[in-house]
Design brief:
The structure is a single chain. The two termini are 36 Å apart. Helices cover 35% and strands 20% of the residues. It contains 13 helices and 16 strands. The chain is globular. The chain has 3 domains: 2-120, Rossmann fold (3-Layer(aba) Sandwich); 138-367, tm_1862 like domain (pyruvate-formate lyase- activating enzyme, Alpha-Beta Horseshoe); 373-426, OB fold (Dihydrolipoamide Acetyltransferase, E2P) (Beta Barrel), CATH 2.40.50. It has a 5-stranded mixed β-barrel with strand order 12-13-14-16-15. The chain has a 3-stranded parallel sheet with strand order 1-2-3, sandwiched between helices. Strands 4-7-8 form a 3-stranded parallel sheet. By secondary structure, the chain is of the alpha/beta class. The relative contact order is 0.08. The protein binds S-adenosyl-L-homocysteine.
Length: 427
């Protein structure tokens, strides 16, 4: 989502005549887009921001814009005091404060256009930065902004604000504008993307939106993430199954395999409901790839409760598990009311055991691709001179070839598989 947000700012600046540079030293404006989902992400953002200070000291005309979840949606006087060398602060997804600042600096007046809401510049057009035009094969479109779910550990609703689906027409024209600039694959984004349209009776469902996007000619592939288990309707699964451009790839986090932990997280489902959902997805979409997210070391998580997560993962054999160690985030329910009582070494141990388990599962799943001929969408040539692409199920494939495969869907035959990628030859 931050990649999508950064692209939107780049697009707004591109419309004003700015262009991207290769090095911060050459820049007149530096935008630091931040994530604070875990402490480690926030530390990284603070580190990067501090490293920009010498540039500002050397060049007082440099404009620094701090953006994203570190800023949040409310005025943040503490942050402004802490980083006085930041010129502009902006909320996630919002290029407006920077644009306004730059225009005023140039002596131009800035009047908020009627259609520009808090989510400025979601105007149905995305101008890709010069370097990306004709180059970018796969791009993101945020379709649900914010989140109103309030899982007890999660800071995102506090920093991205309440859930709001974007207008379908705007999304469609944005997708068309990306297609016109050479993009072949779009991924629709939302914290709970399968809730698309549920906050507005006039909007289609996510399934309906996918079916409308399906008719954009030069778009070859469509994905969506992240889903929440409670909102995955049959209508959505049927759309994935029946519409060939909608990829058989579902990202649906479970977070924990134990019901008490799930309740403490306030996720709203049980582990058996999740198992049934996985079964339902697999029955409806043959060959589907399913990814999940897991948090280990949630407050109070016992060895036995953690074991339930292990058992669930080893039983379901999902394609991907994004693992995280619980990190208390200021202001969340779990940080306020629960004790972060699983020691760090123990979180690491649980993390590594699951990592090993998942590596084995992924190796096993990928081995099924051996000697198969499958379509791959190629994105770019790597530094090593191999073409990098993805299967319909979002698996990484490398192919050695002198042909120009950029942006093309090509059938390839897999001759080697590992836990993280595969090697293939053109057929
Ligand atoms: N909205 C999506 C994704 C949220 S962020 C969802 O709810 O599924 C991506 C992942 O970060 C989450 O799925 C969760 O596994 C992890 N995460 C969120 N808050 C966290 C925290 N406080 N500590 C550790 N991991 C966290």
């Amino acid at each position: 989502m931050n990649v999508a947000d950064s692209m939107r700012v780049a697009s707004a600046l591109e419309k004003m005549g700015y262009h991207d540079t290769a090095h911060p030293k050459e820049a007149d404006v530096i935008i630091l887009n931040t994530c604070v989902v875990r402490q480690s992400a926030e530390d990284k953002a603070v580190g990067r921001l501090s490293s920009l200070r010498p540039l500002k000291d050397k060049n007082p005309d440099l404009i620094i814009n701090l953006m994203g979840c570190m800023v949040g949606v409310k005025d943040n006087p503490v942050l402004k005091k802490r980083f006085p060398y930041v010129d502009v602060f902006s909320s996630p997804s919002d290029p407006e404060p920077l644009v306004k600042y730059l225009l005023e600096k140039e002596g131009q007046s800035y009047e908020l256009n009627e259609t520009m809401t808090r989510f400025a510049y979601m105007d149905g057009e995305l101008v890709l930065p010069t370097a990306e035009k004709g180059n970018l094969v796969a791009s993101f479109i945020s379709v649900v902004l914010g989140c109103s779910h309030a899982c007890t550990y999660c800071i995102i609703p506090y920093r991205r604000g309440i859930e709001k689906s974007r207008q379908p027409e705007e999304i469609l024209s944005e997708a068309q504008s990306l297609a016109d600039q050479g993009v072949k694959e779009i991924t629709l984004l939302g914290q709970i993307v399968d809730r698309y349209g549920m906050d507005n009776p006039d909007y289609p469902t996510l399934g309906g939106l996918l079916r409308r996007l399906h008719s954009i000619k030069s778009i070859e592939r469509i994905r969506f993430l992240t889903s929440h288990p409670m909102y995955m309707t049959d209508e959505l699964l049927n759309t994935v199954a029946d519409y060939p451009k909608v990829m058989p790839h579902i990202e649906v986090p479970i977070q924990a395999g134990n019901d008490q932990v799930l309740e403490n997280m306030r996720r709203g489902y049980t582990n058996s409901q999740y198992r049934e959902l996985v079964q339902r997805i697999r029955e409806r979409i043959p060959g589907v790839s399913i990814a999940t997210d897991i948090i280990v070391g949630f407050p109070g998580e016992t060895e036995q409760q953690y074991q339930d997560t292990y058992d669930l993962l080893s039983e379901l054999k999902l394609d991907v598990a994004h693992l995280a160690r619980y990190s208390p985030r200021e202001g969340t329910v779990s940080a306020r009311r629960m004790t972060d009582d699983v020691p760090d070494e123990e979180k690491w141990r649980r993390f590594r055991v699951l990592e090993d388990l998942q590596e084995g599962i992924a190796t096993e799943i990928h081995a099924r691709y051996l000697d198969k001929t499958i379509p791959v969408l190629f994105e770019e040539k790597s530094k090593k001179g191999r073409w990098r692409g993805r299967t319909e199920t979002n698996k990484l494939v490398f192919v050695e070839s002198n042909d120009d495969l950029h942006g093309k869907v090509v059938p390839v035959k897999v001759y080697w598989t590992g836990p993280w990628s595969m090697l293939a030859k053109l057929v």
